[in-house]
Amino acid sequence: MLSDSIIIEGFRRGDEWFFRHYFYEYCRTAYHIFDKRYELSKKENLDFMSLAHQYAIYLMEHDWKPLEDRSPNVSLRTWMINGFRYIVLDALKWYKREYGTLTFEDYLKSFDTSQDLRLNFNKLILDICDAAKLDRISRTILVMLLVEGYKSKDIAAKIGITPSAVSQRFQTLKNKYIIPYFKEYFDMDFDTQEVMEEEVMEKRDYCDVLPTFPASISHDESTSALDVIHHIDYQRKKYIPMEKKRTTPEFIHTLAPGEIFVFGSNLRGMHGGGAAYAAYRKFGAIMGQGVGLQGQSYAIPTMQGGVETIKPYVDEFIEFAKEHPELTFLVTRIGCGIAGFSDSEISPLFAKAHEVENIILPEGW
């Protein structure tokens, strides 16, 4: 049984045997898990080899160091499977942009089941059932599908209706109760600049020379890797060096002392998903606080109405930044996700921020 450190060194040397017996085997396990969750094999360009090569490219560009940064009590196999998840989520973002079919169910499945938030989510579903005063059948469908994870056919057998009737009832309940609740209290968007773990691709200058695989890997696999890069070419725009003026990175996984993560929130401070959850999990955002500085984060409410309702909070933020020149504020694309606004609607609210040196705005704002 080889140690994890020896396996990583095998990856770093580009040894074909290590790639075949460990890298691709670990990735296959991960793909099988996430294929069940997201139906990857049914989506264009989200096949196993494409995602595995994308993962390999990222790790090689970072000299495989993300695999060495794991906690001592976490195996390499578990760590790589977890890292593969972020490659999958990033690919789903691309898929949504290209095909526009990322669903609410995809969002629900992305909840981190290893965190307490999943327990909170389960409780929220039960609270929604209580508040809506659902009948027994409707409540059973929601609880079994969203909390307990049963399939439609299992639910149909339990309550004595057809699977198609279960699906139709769920769609009605979802659109009438579940989605409106999450739109009001949670940031559900996949396109916001969310904080990712260290395994996720960081913003960097794009290099004209495409990453290549070690010579020991077959030509077909290398070709497939180039195909992946072609299909995710939208990332070039993120990597092309911009003007000298600093902009907010696409992905933020750490903050320097004095840096503040500025995210879109809701007035109730339900930091349950996307950038808001990341702010809560990593940068000190406080559940129940929907406005202002909290830890190394700053909340600007965006879910309470039109653009005119956001402007006072943006103005307040700009004044706050002026009063605290010792801090640097990294503003994400607030309001441009599930809140439903466009960059052209939100960015003018930050016109005065261009004059404030310690406010960093997203690219294009």
Q: Give the overall pLDDT as a whole number.
A: 76
Radius of gyration: 22 Å
How widely separated are the two ends?
A: 53 Å
Biggest sheet record: 5 strands, mixed
Strand order, biggest sheet? 2-3-1-4-5
List the quaternary state of the chains: single chain
Strand percent estimate: 5-15%
In words, what does this structure look like?
This protein is mainly alpha-helical. The protein is 51% helix and 6% strand. The chain has 15 helices and five strands. Helix 3 (48-61) crosses helix 5. The termini are far apart. Mean pLDDT is 76; it is low at 111-117 and 187-243.
Question: Keyphrases for this structure?
Answer:
single chain, 365 residues, mainly alpha, 5-stranded mixed sheet, 15 helices, 51% helix, flat
